[in-house]
Design brief:
The complex is a heterodimer of chains A (about 160) and B (about 190).
Chain A (H helix, E strand, L loop, with lengths): L1 H20 L8 H11 L5 H13 L7 H39 L4 H28 L4 H15 L1
Helix pairs in contact in A: 1-4
Chain B lengths: L3 H8 L4 H14 L5 H12 L5 H13 L4 H39 L1 H6 L1 H28 L4 H16 L4 H18 L2
The chains are: A mainly alpha (about 160), B mainly alpha (about 190).
Chain lengths: ~160, ~190
């Protein structure tokens, strides 16, 4: 029992700080998660880590399910929940506070100017994100073609 | 500047169960990443809970702050609709489906590794998700097409972050003041 607790605590101590360091999306965390899981804590072997990474990409949802899988590997369902909460809660609380503060100024001139000013940048970031995923996708030209067709079909 | 969506949800708040349900659906269909594209389709396109501009500013803030851009955007939409409980319902809805699916996948992962067929399916799904991302971006650009300034800002963002692969943070910090200035002048 104390051992289980210590494992869950270790998962929390690894993933909660990463939550606040992951600027620019979960992909920036990959190297650090690998270092902690394989090198520091020996939660997985290199081979298992690569397998878990492949699985994390096969599931739906917002990207960073890798931590969930590492938690599951180390401590079952309790580990999965602990790692997931540790990775998402700190950053979510920060965004929640920012959104609340931001909502308070709704209706003011500069609130609207900032919203309208960020809009074209966000549209650009969404397109750039598509390019980035396309670049790392393992499928090659077939995936490029399929993605182009999908874009056209959805737009029509 | 009060959009119609804002007025609607104030007088007739969205049910927490509806928020949970919408984001649950979003979570389990958003294969291949690109949560923003799926969220736009489900929350803006289908349910009209927020406006295009609110979606875009939320997406920008979501990416600039630490954490997953998709989860961050979800927190903001939930907060906007129903405050703290709305944000909680949205995030739980978004994550619970994928969490269950990924644990089921992990339980049988030896077989997944060997399945060429499944890998081909996943490539196809990824391609569709990329297509959805591009389509969402292009649709939202067209919505701004009226003036040249915002269009130039979008083009500069795509080129520097997408093509040249410059880091996002400094690019946004340089472009944001320009773009906000343009928005102030354009009132």
């Amino acid at each position: 029992m104390p051992d289980d607790f210590r494992t869950l605590l270790a998962l929390t101590l690894v993933f909660a700080p990463l939550s606040l360091l992951s600027i620019g999306g979960g992909a920036s965390l990959l190297a650090e998660i690998e270092h902690q899981s394989v090198g520091v804590h020996a939660w997985t072997t290199e081979r298992e880590f690569a397998d878990l990474f492949a699985i994390s990409r096969a599931a739906p949802g917002p990207g960073t399910m890798l931590s969930t899988l590492i938690g599951w590997k180390v401590a079952g369902v309790a580990g999965a929940l602990t790692a997931t909460i540790a990775l998402y809660l700190p950053s979510s609380l920060l965004v929640y506070a920012a959104a609340r503060l931001w909502g308070r100024w709704r209706g003011s001139v500069w609130h609207s100017a900032v919203e309208r000013g960020l809009a074209p940048i966000a549209a650009g970031l969404i397109l750039a994100g598509g390019i980035a995923v396309l670049r790392v996708s393992p499928g090659g030209p077939a995936v490029w073609l399929a993605a182009t067709v999908a874009t056209a079909v959805i737009l029509w | 500047m009060t959009g119609p969506t804002i007025g609607t949800h104030r007088t007739n708040p969205v049910q927490l169960s509806a928020i949970f349900g919408a984001f649950f659906r979003l979570g389990i269909v958003s294969f291949g990443g690109g949560t923003a594209g799926w969220l736009y389709r489900e929350i803006v396109g289908r349910r009209h809970w927020i406006s295009d501009t609110e979606f875009l500013s939320g997406a920008a803030l979501g990416r600039l702050m630490p954490g997953s851009g998709g989860v961050n955007l979800t927190v903001q939409v939930g907060q906007h609709l129903r405050g703290g409980s709305g944000a909680l319902a949205a995030v739980l809805g978004l994550l619970s489906g994928p969490l269950a699916i990924i644990l089921a996948l992990a339980a049988g992962y030896a077989r997944i590794e060997q399945s060429v067929m499944l890998r081909a399916v996943l490539d196809g799904v990824a391609a569709a998700a990329i297509g959805l991302t591009f389509a969402t971006g292009l649709k939202l650009v067209r919505f701004r097409l009226a003036s040249a300034g915002p269009l130039a800002v979008t083009a500069a963002t795509v080129f520097s972050v997408g093509v040249l692969r410059w880091p996002m943070m400094p690019v946004v910090l340089c472009l944001a003041p320009v773009s906000i200035g343009l928005a102030l002048l354009d009132r």
